[in-house]
Amino acid sequence: MTADLFDSLAEAQPSREDIADGAVLLRGFAGTIEHELIAAVRAITAQSSFRQMTTPGGYQMSVAMTNCGERGWITDHTGYRYDPIDPLSEQPWPSMPPLFRDLARRAAEEGGFPSFAPDACLVNRYEPGTRLSLHQDKDELDLSAPIVSVSLGLPATFLFGGMARSDKPRRFRLVHGDVVVWGGVTRLAYHGVAPLADGEHALLGRQRINLTFRKTR
Ligand code: MD3
Ligand code: FE
């Protein structure tokens, strides 16, 4: 069976897989609303474009990012933070589409976290060769809330490490439509994304888009 055929079968049959303590992989959970999600991403980026941010250490990230919701994650020479204003447009971030909110809430519930109310959605764009090095997400005040991630476009190899940066990461393939709920002790695990392999996605072309829903306060 080809990888593409396998992916389409997986999308057609949503499944639930526990991948770690508090982390649940919902294969194909977002597949049924793929067109609406992509249209919403386009509307968001028309207001707040994708941009490559620079870390406090002076490195330009290879992944391009934007946000929607009440606050957006940004990094610059001063640090990392959630800010209500997009520094590029100098306007508030686009509001979070109800479709996004509902998807995140339904997924979190499925993953065992009822009434998840995200106030921020970070939108990451990967082009072939781009990667996200191992890191922890700890800029959110309420670490009892999960993070919900939605993968669209080209498949990626997700690196899932432990509580120490030196723990050898496990590798997961995440494909278009996959949703993961990251909660519990997993919330502070190191994680990243391996350099994106080149390819062509039927709806998104040569890119992968990842949405992460967060409750930041
Ligand atoms: C596990 N994004 O935006 S999503 C990020 O595919 C980020 O773009 C990756 O890491 C991406 O911060 C991974 C999956 C994810 C997100 C947050 C986590 C996994 C996580 C937080 C804790 C543990
Ligand atoms: Fe992260």
Automatic annotation (TrEMBL):
Origin organism lineage: Bacteria, Pseudomonadati, Pseudomonadota, Alphaproteobacteria, Hyphomicrobiales
Species of origin: Bradyrhizobium iriomotense
Stretches assigned to the Fe2OG dioxygenase domain: 117-217
PROSITE patterns: FE2OG_OXY
Protein name from the UniProt record: Alpha-ketoglutarate-dependent dioxygenase AlkB
Molecular function in Gene Ontology: dioxygenase activity
InterPro entries assigned: Alkb, AlkB-like, AlkB-like_sf, Oxoglu/Fe-dep_dioxygenase_dom
Keyword Iron: yes
Gene3D superfamilies in alphabetical order: Alpha-ketoglutarate-dependent dioxygenase AlkB-like (2.60.120.590)
Cofactors required: Fe(2+)
Annotated PANTHER family: ALKYLATED DNA REPAIR PROTEIN ALKB-RELATED, NUCLEIC ACID DIOXYGENASE ALKBH1
Pfam family, one: 2OG-FeII_Oxy_2
Keyword Membrane annotated: no
Keywords (A to Z) from UniProt: Dioxygenase, Iron, Metal-binding, Oxidoreductase
